[in-house]
Amino acid sequence: MPELKLLEQQTAYEMVTRPERLKEVAHALSGEPILGVDVEATGLDPHTAQVLLVQVSTPDRAFVFDARILDLSPLSSLFSDENILKLAQNAKFDYGMIKAQLGMEVKNIFDTMLAERVLTMGVSRDNSLRSLSRKYLDVELSKETRETFYNHTRAFSKRQIEYAAKDVLVLFPIREKQESQLKKEGLWEVAQLEFALVPVVAEMELRGFLIDVAKWRGVIEEYRKKAAEVSQKIQAELRPYSRHTQTDLFGNQVDVVNLNSPSQVLEAFRRVGLDLPSTGEGILSQYDHPLAKLMLEHRGYEKITTAFGENLLSKINPKTGRVHPDYMQIGADTGRFACSNPNLQQIPTESLFRDCFIASPGYKLVIADYSQIELRIMADLSGDPVFVKAFKDDVDLHALTASQMFNIPLKEISKEKRFQAKSINFGLMYGRGARSLGVQLGVTEEEAIKLLNKYFSQYKRVKNWLDQVSKDAVKLGFSQTMSGRKRYFQKVSTGDPGSERMVAYIERQGKNTPIQGTSADMTKYGLVYVWNRFKKEGLDATPIHTVHDEIVCEVKEDQAQKAVKILEEEMARAGERFLKNVPVKVDGVVSDIWEH
């Protein structure tokens, strides 16, 4: 491409290897309003990788600093200067490397990767610098050179240095076009929230979470035993119907079916009169049969021991002795976080598991979550007077819903009726229909329809709001949170193959996104507020984990009571940024373990 050739010809950069020149450049750059920043390292782990190059650039010139031979401390004042905007692609990585390996903080960030994610939520996941260069600049960047930095120990080639320089220079024109588009789409405030969150997430990853290894192994072993016990119960039920040899050479009973083989399970179940279309959890849960229930129980134990077990312990960093998950700020198209390597958001909520996650010696865990926040958001958005009054009066909404649906006094509501009401309250937010609800409640679809009709006769404003936002999502091609965050959908033309299914999907997401997305925004503001307050108060405290509406911090023991008060106050402040008609309730606790 001509543009690529032009970029190569005009790449202006300087390789800095002398301390005197480093100081001159740092001084000269201190007057710049915007700087591009990038890091090349020997690996991706900030605790074990070595920083090789640090690139800092103006719009027309890049300075490439050899981190292997230079003391880069003169750059510290540039990185921490809040009056200088720092451009980066995947800034969390650069922040982590600069903080862990160079001991510097980076403030006032514009992340082109996050900006693109905000602009294209729901329609694209390709936010790589190569993709952005192609989209905004019509320039093709080769990323093959990046791999040459891994475990690199030799002198840098001209190709490597030019690659490093281009990586920061292209950020300027990309940022200009993104910022213009963000403001045009009303997404600038959302993008600024994501940028402010970068240092918090980077620090969260750097700190990591401590695990009681012995306790964890004990829990997993217990679940393995339970899985084996349930497996033997299933084998015993199926053994009388088996056509195969049931003992080995030594006369010991053997398994008659491989429970990990869907085809074998289906065949074995048919012999006992349980004819299933598949062995999926959704299918098994629809059958009131002992074998189906045992199979579901076995799957639950197996899932935990397989997904976690020793696999979780293998993620413990050898240098820190802690797990350091990778948090994706916009992991879901609603704006929610996602977590991987390991995914601590999938740790079961039972205390058996969470008790294994502990505070460091001399520290406490300070944990807080929003109480029924998604229901409060739905109450605020719909303006339903019964919903709103229930939260203002601090009434059990699920019990109240059951009372009104079944015409039973509030004090006489059974656990079963409350569970039915709770299932509907939460199910509606996820766009669930009568069939899905019927499966969960163990009733027919017709009975589920009657329950829904009773529900909507009580909460008319909720129904009107859900109907309206689902239609708007289809009509406008996007759904919106209270902060203005947009989740885009593909345009659907009537008559297109699968158009009805696509419309139904958009309608479901149209109901869910304003609620779940607003909850995500609230938690993100909470993290930023809490982090800034901790620093302002001079506390030895750091957020180390978040699960949707929950924030976990690790705090010096003698500061824990002050920290939990700050956590509750700042999370409430974040919630009150959005909710004007219902109160925000935050429950905090100080503990040695990850309580919920």
Observed structural traits:
596 residues, alpha+beta, Nucleotidyltransferase, domain 5, Taq DNA Polymerase, Chain T, domain 4, Alpha-Beta Plaits, 4 domains, 6-stranded mixed sheet, 24 helices, 51% helix, disordered N terminus
Explain how this protein is built.
- The chain has 4 domains: 2-185, 2-Layer Sandwich (Nucleotidyltransferase, domain 5), CATH 3.30.420.10; 213-312, Taq DNA Polymerase, Chain T, domain 4 (Up-down Bundle); 324-382 and 481-596, Alpha-Beta Plaits (2-Layer Sandwich), CATH 3.30.70; 385-458, no CATH class.
- The protein is built from 24 helices and 16 strands.
- It has helices spanning 2-10, 19-29, 76-80, 91-102, 112-119, 129-137, 158-169, 171-184, 188-207, 213-238, 262-271, 281-284, 290-307, 309-313, 351-354, 373-382, 385-392, 397-406, 415-429, 434-441, 445-458, 460-476, 499-537, 560-576; strands spanning 13-16, 34-41, 51-57, 62-66, 85-88, 109-111, 210-211, 326-328, 338-340, 357-358, 363-370, 478-480, 486-488, 541-547, 550-556, 586-591.
- The longest helix has 39 residues, at 499-537.
- The chain is globular, with a radius of gyration of 28 Å.
Main pleated sheet: 6 strands, mixed
CATH architecture of the largest domain: 2-Layer Sandwich
> What amount of the residues lies in strands?
5-15%
Give the beta-strand count: 16
The general outline is globular
Chain-averaged pLDDT: 90
In summary, what is this structure?
The protein is of the alpha+beta class and 596 residues long. The chain has helices spanning 2-10, 19-29, 76-80, 91-102, 112-119, 129-137, 158-169, 171-184, 188-207, 213-238, 262-271, 281-284, 290-307, 309-313, 351-354, 373-382, 385-392, 397-406, 415-429, 434-441, 445-458, 460-476, 499-537, 560-576, and strands spanning 13-16, 34-41, 51-57, 62-66, 85-88, 109-111, 210-211, 326-328, 338-340, 357-358, 363-370, 478-480, 486-488, 541-547, 550-556, 586-591.
